[in-house]
Amino acid sequence: MTDQSEVQQAEELKKKSLWREYTESIIIAVLLALVIRTFVVQAFKIPSGSMEDTLLIGDHLLVSKFIYGTKIPFTDKQIIKLRDPKRGDVVVFEYPEDPRKDFIKRVIGEPGDVVEGKEKKVFVNGKLYENPHEVHKELEIIPKEQNPRDTFGPVIVPENSYFVMGDNRDRSYDSRFWKFVRRDQLKGLAFIKYWSIEGPWYKFNIRWRNIGRLIN
Q: What's the confidence (pLDDT) of residue 73?
């Protein structure tokens, strides 16, 4: 017959083995999540209406971090770069005046471009830039002397920088006010809506039509 102490030891070893498996699984899952968030995709929630009607408050997005090149933590090196940002991209970036905050806007001017606003119309390199997603929700035209919302520039976009604007042109705080986003401040390209709700968490309405929609 098997000694009782041997049975107890076997059971203890089995328990330790199970705990070890659970612990290893959790650690691997956490590390995998960190790698994905750092190098592949990151979730982002729309907190304001500056990108209406392209993006609504309560839209949840996935942002591709590798398309522009992912920065290796604690270094200036980038890997997995597919292409540079281009005009029309909807990008997430560190807000230049407070890096703790993330902003989302559309790229209007690339490095070297001349961008100018004239009474709500935007010109890039002397040509009218027509963005099918832009909206104007206020008829009033504000003089340039008062603020640059409707009339600004011309400004030249510096090297390794971008001029960005919200699609909700009359209600967006963007490059018209605080100038440019540096290349190293970009976090990625917003490419799909994976969830969308309207209203507070205790009384929300799911926007089913928005779920799974690509962002362009």
A: 64
Quick: pLDDT tens for 122-164.
999 999 999 999 999 999 999 999 999 999 999 999 999 999 9
Tell me the CATH number at 75: 2.10.109.10
Query: What are the pLDDT digits (tens) for 160-206?
Result: 999 999 999 999 999 999 999 999 999 999 999 999 999 876 777 99
15 occurs within a structural domain: no
Tell me the CA end-to-end span of the chain in Å, nearest whole number.
73
Tell me which residue of 206, 136, 125 sits closest to 167, measured CA to CA. 136
Per the domain annotation, does 186 fall within a domain?
yes
Burial level of 10, CB count in 10 A (0-12/13-18/19+)?
A: exposed
pLDDT at 18 over 80: no
Indicate the average pLDDT of the chain. 87
Does some domain include residue 30? no
50 assigned to active site: yes
Containing structural domain, residue 126: 42-210
Judge whether 181 lies within some domain. yes
Catalytic residue among 65, 105, 187, 193: 105
One-letter amino acid identity for 180? F
Q: Which of 50, 64, 161, 196 is flagged as catalytic?
A: 50
187 counts as catalytic? no
What's CA 133's distance to the chain center, in Å?
Answer: 17
